[in-house]
Specification:
Layout: E1 3-10, H1 18-28, E2 32-36, H2 47-52, E3 55-60, E4 68-73, E5 78-82, E6 95-100, E7 103-109, H3 119-141, E8 145-150, H4 175-187, E9 190-191, H5 192-197, E10 222-226, E11 234-239, H6 241-244, E12 255-260, H7 276-300, H8 305-311, H9 343-358
Parallel strand pairs: 1-2, 7-8
Antiparallel strand pairs: 1-12, 2-4, 3-4, 5-6, 6-7, 8-10, 9-10, 11-12
């Protein structure tokens, strides 16, 4: 490969925003696009319209809620997994994994977790725990991988939200949510936006209420994490904000990375504030300190992480009531398109070379 642009976009209803999706694909032409919140059953996915723009696609739909898809320009994604292994509630369509152009692409829609505290937040933590296990296996496989989607986590107060004061009781900012996110980075994944933009405030989501978009009162909850093989190739990353400004838009904007076999870009950091790694450490430390009082309240409410693991959804992290894995269902996916020239081989070669060089009321 010379360059690949990989994007994630919470479309918030693919039927209602099909025109917006097609306009974005036509203008930005990402090589791989991961979609979340399709809010449509499999048969309602706009396969023909997507194919007309030159994209092959696989999708995992669900009526009214959730739903994820992976699109590839000039290629057909080769599905590897439908559903997160050990998902505490496999009836929810939240995870899809495929091989595309020599990369492994994992598209996820992590549970929102509101209201906090409560069963939905317990489900969020249980789902996160299963994601940790599977993400570790992906790294162990050694295949260049992008883990991306709507994580429903605001990593820091300082850089990833306009003002945290009115969001203190939201599941997106809870210490446990943040600790789970940073635990993924500690496995070896790279937060692409933070790596490129350093301590710049970047948002990917603007709530529909109280003129959040007009005031640029946003949050960063859509993330693209890169495996160690891909991190040296990170050339650029950004957000297609123009999409959020369109009439009837999703409350999210597409977020993307540009990978280049020629090598990555130097991170853009300002000397006025902490570097991202220092900020992450400080945030995690603060999260652990504040979690003591938080956990006390949650324990009183009977929603501590330990209690959640024991009593919430079937098949939670305790493993005592492992849920039955949902069978792999085949959707009416697009006919296998002609594969693009073997970018996969190029990715494998350039990955090795790069490695040597660098050594909220809307969601259920």
């Amino acid at each position: 490969m010379a360059r690949l642009k990989i994007a994630t976009f919470n479309i918030n209803g693919v039927r209602a925003r099909q025109d917006a999706l097609l306009a974005w694909l036509q203008r930005e032409q990402p090589d791989v696009a991961c979609l979340q919140e399709l809010k449509a059953p499999d048969e309602a996915f706009p396969q023909r319209a997507v194919e007309a723009l030159g994209y092959g696609a696989i999708w995992h739909g669900q009526k009214s809620w959730n739903g994820v898809a992976i699109l590839a320009r000039g290629a057909q994604p080769e599905e590897r997994r439908r559903g997160l292994p050990g998902d505490p509630d496999p009836s929810q369509s939240r995870y899809l994994e495929a091989d595309v152009n020599g990369l492994r692409v994992a598209c996820l829609y992590l549970p929102n977790g509101n209201p906090w505290p409560g069963p939905k937040f317990d489900y969020k933590l249980a789902w996160f725990a299963q994601l940790h296990r599977h993400a570790a296996r992906l790294l162990k496989d050694g295949v260049p991988t992008v883990l991306c989607g709507d994580f429903n986590v605001v990593p820091t107060d300082e850089l990833d939200i306009y003002d945290p004061k009115s969001w203190r009781t939201d599941a997106l900012l809870q210490p446990e949510s943040r600790e789970a996110y940073f635990a993924l980075l500690e496995q070896g994944w790279t937060d692409s936006i933070r790596q490129v933009h350093g301590d710049a405030k970047i948002f990917t989501f603007w709530d529909y209420f109280r003129r959040h978009w007009e005031r640029d009162a946003g949050l960063r909850i859509d993330h693209l994490l890169l495996s160690p093989q891909l991190a040296p190739m990170l050339r650029d990353a950004g957000v297609d904000r123009w999409v959020r400004g369109q009439p009837g838009a999703s409350d999210h904007a597409p977020t993307w990375v540009l990978l280049d076999s020629a090598g990555g870009a130097k991170p853009k950091r300002s000397a006025s504030t902490k570097a991202p790694t220092e900020l992450a450490t400080a945030t995690k430390t603060g999260a652990k300190r504040s979690s003591a009082s938080t956990n006390a309240a949650r324990k009183q409410a009977g929603t501590s992480p330990a209690a959640a693991a024991k009593r919430v959804v079937p098949g939670s992290v305790s493993g005592k009531t492992a849920a039955k894995k949902s069978p792999v269902r085949k959707t009416a996916t697009t006919k296998t398109a002609k594969k693009a020239p073997r970018a996969g081989a190029a990715v494998a070669k350039t990955t090795a070379a790069g490695a040597r060089r660098s050594g909220s009321p809307k969601k259920p």
